[in-house]
Amino acid sequence: MKLTKIFAGMAAAAIATSAMAMTAFAADAGKGPNNDDGVSVFGVYIGMTKDEAIANSVLQEDGKEPDDWTTVPVKVTIDEIKFDDNVVTANGTGMMYWQGDELKFELVNVYNDDVNGGKDGATTVFTTLPSKTIEVTFTIDGLSSDLSGKAYVGGGFQTAGADWSSTFFGNKPDGVNPAGTTFEMPDVTGNGTYTAKVFFPDQGGDNTSSGTDSKADSTADSKTDSKTDSKANSTAATTSSKAGTTGTTTATSSSAASDNTAATGATAGIALAGIALAGAAIVVSKRK
User: Fold this and answer.
1) How far apart are CA 133 and CA 113, in angstroms?
2) Are the beta carbons of 214 and 176 closer than 8 angstroms?
3) What is the model's pTM?
4) What kind and span of H or E run contains 95?
5) CA 10 to chain CA centroid, nearest Å
6) Per-residue pLDDT reduced to its tens digit, 230-279
């Protein structure tokens, strides 16, 4: 009876320790580069002048916006998103529109209710956050005329409801993004599949930025400038091989970053359980 009680007690302790380890791990997971807890803006931004937008029928011949952005022939599809080299899934659809010499495809924009509910999307579109890198592979199709710009992953994070705890805009001068933020921005010249990436500075440093300029000059104005009846383009993963492609990607189903963190926590819990059971064996040996 005593041996049974000892084993039962040690097994319960091991399970409890494992559960606490996994809970603690999960609580620390999913923070942004500045310990952010949500996303203010997230999108892919492709350089496109007004003349290029007109030539590709993104804008009307007189330069005016279309009544419905989904009617334009140019389409952008997100093929794959990676946070810290782990594939993640966006819970929602994207909105494409043109503004300020850029073709924008956004998954989150707290200033535009047409983008996955505006503020609602800050914590629902992504269930985990990157701490070091974001990589987005996308396909642009329907261009009838060449482009001359670059593409970048852009946006901002929020902490405790503050819209701009840190930013990452590839088209902004130094001083707006946190020091040390770097970008890989492919030249987008025509239809094809491209990959853009952003690297964040290490945690623990002064990664904060006021975000004042980015809030005023970036997608914060998109709510008033874009049409309220704009519908979303699908972000379903697809693969395509287009003329002018500078990079290729294969969209495959993969475990999200949250799955990886759960697996890591489980491994740690199992290890702790093993230590606890080993202790039980020692106790039994001594009692003999």
Assistant:
1) 27
2) yes
3) 0.66
4) strand 95-99
5) 42
6) 433 433 333 333 333 333 333 333 333 333 434 444 444 444 444 443 44
